[in-house]
Amino acid sequence: MIYLDNNATTKIDERVLEEMLPYMKEEYANPSSMYDFSRKAHNAIKEARVKIKDFVNASTEREIIFTSCGSESANMAIKGVIGYNRSKRHIITTKVEHPCVLNTYKELEKQGYEVDYIGVNSSGELNLDELKSKIRKDTALVSVMWANNETGVIFPIKEISEIIKTRNPETKFFVDGVQAAGKIPMDVQDNGIDLLGISGHKFHAPKGIGALYINSKTSILPLITGGHQERGLRAGTENVPYIAGIGKAAELAADSLNYELSEVKRLRDKLETGILSNVFNARLNTSITNRVPNTTNIGFEYIEGELILLHLSDLGICASSGSACTSGSLEPSHVLRAMGTPFTSLHGSIRFSLSKYTTEADIDFVIKHMPEVIYKLNKISPFQKELEHLKACKG
Amino acid sequence: MWDYSEKVLDHYRNPRNVGSIEDADAIGEAGSLACGDSLKIYLKIENGIVTDAKFQTFGCGSAVASSSILTEMIIGKPIEEVRKITNKDIAEALDGLPPEKMHCSVMGHEALEDALKNYFHEEAASQEKIVCTCFNVSEKQIWDAIKENGLKTVDEVTNYTKAGGACGRCKGLIQDIINTYYKKSEEETKLTSTQMVLKVNKIIETLIAPELQKDGGGIELIDIQGNKVMVKLYGRCSSCKNSLVTLKNFVETMLKDKVSKDIEVIQV
C-alpha cells in the first residue's frame, strides 16, 4: 500500500506507542490522586505539557491545555473567547477554513454574531487588504488557519497578527494549526498568536488527542465544565496515555522538521512534476511556492475525482479528493470554489499528502501509474473534443 | 467510504460499451460538468430493436457503473421494452446503490429518456419549470422520482435527484411537490383575517426564517392589511444589495405558494 493521505491522518510512530503503553497497563492511576502510585501518571502529563510548550515555543507550559482533538481545540478557542467577551459581536475568519471552524461560525451566526469570511485568490492566498478593512472596535476574534488541509497553502500568520494588533489590540487571534504542526516551524510568540489549536493524529500520535495553546494574556470560558483538571479550563480525567503520546510525537516532530522541509518536500515536488509533465489534462490547484512541504493538489480536467480515487485504490494508492461525490454532500470542495478553480478540474481534484514514511519507491510507483489511470478514465469522459483540444494545446 | 456492491465495483473497474457511435440513431444526454456528473448515451436502432449502445460518463464510480449496466440492459431489446426501464431497474441491476448515490441511476434513466425523445423527434423538455437552480432539476424530474421510488421526504428527493443538495433554498418547493403528490396540501379556502395572520406567521417561522438565517439574516412579520404582508428584514439582509430580490423572489413566492396567490410583500 502507498499511503499519500497524511493530511487526513498519519501512522502512529512506534516510539509514540511505546511511550503510551505503560499508562495503559501498569501505570493506570488517576493523576489527581494523592498517593505515590499516581506520581508517574502525574509526571507524564507534566512532561508532555513541557514538550508541547517547546514544540510551539510558548512562554510557559501553563499555556498548554490538552483536548480530545483538533475540533475540540477550535471549539474551545472560538466559543471560549467570545463567551468571555460577550459585548463584542463580530468575528473575522476565512472562506477556506476547515469545517470544524466554519460550521462553528455558521452556528454562531444563527445566535446573532456577525461573521466576515475573507476570500482568497486563485492560488489560495488570503486577501490581507480585505482582512485589514474588516477589523472593527467590536471584533472579538480573528480566526485563521495556518496551513490549508486541501491545498497546503500557508497563511502569513505574523503579518496577520501585526495587522490585527495595529487595528485593534483588544482583538484575539486564534490560529488553527492542525495542518501546520510537524510540517513547518511553529512559534506562537514570534508570530503573535493568542490561541493555537493542534491535533495529535496529524503528526504521528494517535487519534483522540489534541492541544490548545492559550497565551497568559487571553482569558476564555471553558467548554467542558466539571473538575479542576487543566486549570479548570477543560474538565474530565486526563487521558494520560494519549497525552504522553502527543508529547512524544511533538518531540519527534520537532526533530524531523528538517527532514520534512527537505526530503519530504523533494519527494512531493518530484511527484508533482512527474504528474504535471506526464498527464496532459493535469493542472496544479494550489500556490506553487507558499505551501507546507508535504501537500499537493492536482486537478484532472474532464474526469471525476471519486472515480480516480477508486482506480488508484485498486492499485493500492491512497489519496483524497475535493470532489462532491466523495463527501456525500453533493457539493464540491469549498476551498477550491473559494479559489475560483474552474469546473473543468474542480470535480477531478486529487490531494496527495506525504509524510516522513513516504519512500522514493512510493513516489516512483505513482508517477509510473498515474498516466495510465488517467488515460483510461479520459476515454470514458463525454468531453472528448475538449480533451483533444487540451492535448493539442499542451502538445 | 461507500458501500458499493460487487456489481458496482465490477462495472466501474471494467465498464462495458464505453465510447461513441459515429452514425448513432439516437443520442441522449443528462447532467452537466458544473454539477459534477454528466452522461452521454448513443444508440443504434434497427427494426425497432436496440442493436448497439455506447456511453461516455463524467462522474463517480456509481455513475459509470449505472451507465455501463444500462447499456447491457438495453442492447438486443425492442425499443418498447427499453422505454419501460426505470431508474429503479438500473439500481436493482447493480444490486442496489447507496442512498446518496441514487441520483446516478436517475441520471442514467434521464439520458435514456432523452435519447428516445431524440429518436422519436419529441420535444425536448426545455420548457419545464426548474425547481433546483443549483443542479438544474425540473419539477417534472422531481415528480417522476417521487412517483417511481415512492419518496416521502425532502432528503430522499435530494438523494435521488440532487435537488436541494447545494444551497438548499428549494427545499420548501420540494416539500410542496411532495405534499401535492400525496394530496396532502391543505385545501385552498378563503381565509378569515385571523386565519391569514396565523398561516402567514407559521410559514414565515417554519419555512422562510430558517432559510434567511442560513445567510445570517432574519425576518419579522409586522402587520397584515388585506393581501399586503408587511415584513421587516434584519441582520445581513438589511444591508445586502440583494435584499429586495430576496423579498420578491423568495418570501413572496413562498407566501403566494403556501397561503394565497394574491399576497403582496412590503418591506417596512
3D structure, described in words:
The complex is a heterodimer of chains A (395) and B (268). Chain A has 395 residues and is an alpha/beta fold. Chain A folds into 2 domains: 14-255, Aspartate Aminotransferase, domain 2, CATH 3.40.640; 257-394, Alpha-Beta Complex (Aspartate Aminotransferase, domain 1), CATH 3.90.1150. Helix content of chain A is 42%, strand content 14%. In chain A, the strands form 3 sheets. In chain A, strands 2-8-7-6-5-3-4 form a 7-stranded mixed beta sheet, sandwiched between helices. A 4-stranded antiparallel beta sheet of chain A has the order 9-10-13-12. In chain A, strand 3, helix 4 (99-110) and strand 4 (114-118) form a beta-alpha-beta unit. With 268 residues, chain B is of the alpha+beta class. The N and C termini of chain B lie far apart (50 Å). The A-B interface holds A 106, 109-110, 112, 114-115, 302-307, 310-311, 314, 323-326, 328-332, 343-344, 347, 379-384 and B 12-13, 15, 18-20, 29, 33-34, 36-40, 56-61, 63-64, 100, 135, 158, 162, 165-166, 213-214, 216, 235-236.
Largest sheet of chain B: 3 strands, antiparallel
Query: What is the name of the CATH architecture of the largest domain in chain B?
Result: Alpha-Beta Complex
Task: Fill in the CATH topology of the largest domain in chain B.
Answer: Sufe protein. Chain: A
Proportion in helices of chain A: 40-55%
Gross morphology of chain A: globular
Q: Spans of chain B of 5+ residues with little confidence (pLDDT < 50)?
A: none
Number of helices of chain B: 11
H and E string of chain A: EHHEHEHEHEHEEEHHEEHEEHHHEHH
